[in-house]
Amino acid sequence: MNDGGEGTGRATRSKRADARRNEKTLLDAAAAIFVASGVDAPVRDIAARAGVGVGTIYRHFPTRSDLIIAVYRHQVEACAEAGPALLETSPTPHVALARWIDLFVDFLVTKHGLAGVLQSDNTGFEALHTYFLDRLVPVCTQLLDAAVASGEIRSELRAYELMRGVGNLCVGAESDPRYDARRLVGLLVAGLRGPN
């Protein structure tokens, strides 16, 4: 006679998978709202976009700081995973790099609000910044190396420099509608090609 242990195990794994999907949906919705409206956007807007009640968000993320940190980590992982996928699916490595930088800009716009939220926790902010560099610099390096190897871009630029430059171009973009950081970042990425 089956004691149900195997079925219970499958049900538990299924619930965990559902919980991960639900959390991903919440984090995707929060990231989109943060990009559009900043990290101070009302939680009800995030809930509406995710198709859940406000209480569901607070069950997963009891404070705004918890939500912002989770979105930050979620976006770092999404950027890290996107690099290799874009290299496989883009027509050229330079196109893959440009598409990845576009995702990175979305991430940076969200990230700007993080500093204010974590002001009182410098250790936490430093740990997240280290995590950010550890996960994304190798991905950007892989994209740059592929574009250099294909002969599409110059070879003297390092990933950290490019990411820092893009970051600097994004500073203040969320508070000045006359400033189009994405356009300037696009010019920077196009300029990597150098003279023909």
Automatic annotation (TrEMBL):
Residues 20-79 form the HTH tetR-type domain. Residues 42-61 bind DNA. The keyword Transcription applies. InterPro entries: Homeodomain-like_sf (IPR009057), HTH-type_TetR-like_transc_reg (IPR050109), HTH_TetR (IPR001647), Tet_transcr_reg_TetR-rel_C_sf (IPR036271), TetR_SbtR-like_C (IPR049445). The keyword Cell membrane does not apply. Keywords: DNA-binding, Transcription, Transcription regulation. Gene3D superfamilies: Tetracycline Repressor, domain 2. Coiled coil: none annotated. One of its GO terms (molecular function) is transcription cis-regulatory region binding. This is TetR family transcriptional regulator. It comes from Streptomyces shenzhenensis.
